[in-house]
């Protein structure tokens, strides 16, 4: 049966978001309402488990930065332990492997998700119309008690902190926290770090000796993690998180699931693998001899990276070969990036010990009977 004009108008109204005069009530929500990238922990380009963590770094799940300031030793992994019947397949797990029951004043352990200022302009921070933000996530730990979440304005040294409680040990619980909009201090409109969302896992008195700042204020370290439990006080402690969503407004909507290819490409803006640890006997790039002892590989990236990336590599002897004609050269030297690389393509070269002929083309191949952990990565993280 044909729809009436009124029915059609109602359907259009439901599809359109409120900013375009609709209700936003359709089953087809606006995409990317979630500011968090990889909130379902499904993408882990670097690997699925890293042990012995005592410092700061991106380890497993993409876009999740784990920071440890002399508070224990940790293993971080991508886990299949998830809330039941919620649609999630992966979570991020933090496991204490060396405890520190009594933190020193400057100690901390925390998880972060970081954002470019140019992606946050619609929040209208620093104006009278600044948007509130609602953070929702699923969390699980054997360590019950008070935990602290923080939104940190890196541009203006301002922050706001709210606590949440893990009530039942070893039980997935959903948390929703709303942060007021900040009418002071606009985010810069560029590709640099403007905002962090932080989950505190433990902290010394430098961060816990004041009063928790539930409203936006200039950053005072003593007010940032007041009441926070110490997840590092026992090697039995572990903490899981998944389904993380941060969105404008005062209420949480259902988690925004994205197709895996879309989620991967969003992550590749910040990190891209030319050769991964998991590549075995694989073709990785095409290249040519730029000179008799210099092999060059122009590589077009799958998406625009945030900025000109840094080359990270760990190449074992004989792990990489350049096949040309009916022979190959072992590439023993570290790769370098050409100075004309950009966020859309890179050209890397290898000053190999082999002797070729300028103009000869071939293939970069990872030959890994014993060097499976070799890798070449591009890093443009915040």
Fill in the keyword field for this structure.
382 residues, mainly beta, Jelly Rolls, 2 domains, seven-stranded antiparallel sheet, 23 strands, disordered N terminus
Query: Main sheet, how many strands, which sense, barrel?
Result: 7 strands, antiparallel
Helical run tally: 3
Strand content: 35-45%
Shape: globular
Structural class call reads mainly beta
- Summed up, the domain count is 2
Order of helices and strands: HEEEEEEEEEEEHEEHEEEEEEEEEE
List segments where confidence is low: pLDDT < 50 over at least 5 consecutive residues. Answer: 1-30
Number of E-type strands: 23
Overall pLDDT confidence: 90
Strand order of the largest sheet: 2-3-6-11-8-9-12
| Oligomer classification | single chain
Proper CATH architecture of the largest domain: Sandwich
Determine and state the CATH class of the largest domain: Mainly Beta
**CATH homologous superfamily title of the largest domain:** Galactose-binding domain-like
Ends distance: 54 Å
CATH topology-level name of the largest domain: Jelly Rolls
Question: Could you estimate the helical fraction of the residues in percent?
Answer: under 10%
**Rg from C-alpha positions?**
24 Å
Secondary-structure blueprint of this entry?
Elements: H1 5-15, E1 49-53, E2 56-58, E3 65-69, E4 73-79, E5 91-98, E6 108-116, E7 133-141, E8 145-153, E9 158-166, E10 173-179, E11 193-203, H2 205-208, E12 217-218, E13 238-248, H3 260-268, E14 271-275, E15 282-291, E16 294-300, E17 310-314, E18 320-324, E19 327-330, E20 336-337, E21 345-350, E22 361-366, E23 375-379
